[in-house]
Amino acid sequence: MDFRWAFGQYERLAVLATGLVRRPVSVLAATGGEPAALAAKNATSSIPIVFAIGSDPVKLGLVASYNQPGGNATGITLFTAALEAKRLGLLHELVPHVATIGALLNPNYPVFDDQLKDVREAAQVTGLRVHVLRANTDEEIEAAFNTVNQQTIGALVVAAAPFFDTRRDKLVSLAARYAVPAVYQFREFATAGGLMSYGVSIPHIYRQVGAYAGRILKGAKPADLPVVQPTKFELVINLKTAKMLGIEVPAALLAFADEVID
What we know:
By secondary structure, the protein is of the alpha/beta class. It folds into two domains: 10-79 and 201-224, 3-Layer(aba) Sandwich (Rossmann fold), CATH 3.40.50.2300; 81-199 and 234-261, 3-Layer(aba) Sandwich (Rossmann fold). It is 42% helix and 17% strand. It is built from twelve helices and ten strands. The strands form two sheets. Strands 5-4-6-7-8-9-10 form a seven-stranded mixed β-sheet, with helices on both faces. The longest helix is centred in the last third of the chain and has 16 residues, at 202-217. The chain is elongated.
């Protein structure tokens, strides 16, 4: 197995994917979300690709359909990028007194426009004001949290984006420093000290990527392997962080949670 890691720097992915194709490899596992999957797809039309992305692979042009992908790519969609409205709703349920919620998004993420639309529509439905914050670098993340602090934004939705996954500890640390309640996409944020997360299980998704790669190495064709869709989403609440923020978690939300970290 040969690994390449872009550390959230999307512009490096094309070169990394091309390098793997030139080796050549037998299967490309593109697990870094849409940017990695698109880089792999652009690099080869013959080497099999197994992707893990957060949005619609048909809309992105990675596959022809979910049941019959066609071409040389298949994989798993987490649908995590389509859950921003749900996360905003859960955060509102946790801190119902907050009137203005920030939404931190990565403008370089391929489905940024869809995420922005979902967040704004959800805020309108719930009667909330939403302050959109954009970040694609460490400096922009820090600037976004400064804005949250200066403008007294009461809570924060950290939207799905591979770049934010690579900056998990930084995001959780800044949320603690500025005492801002925040919701994230994966359990790993909550176990690192984040207040709450809602999304799929990353270990489960990576196992599925490995399983598909194994089937292809044994002779299966990507065109014949349906795109896997998630059937379970996990709500994780960190009670220790909630107590530090002075938040009393509603009983109904605790009952709905899949995991509570004390």
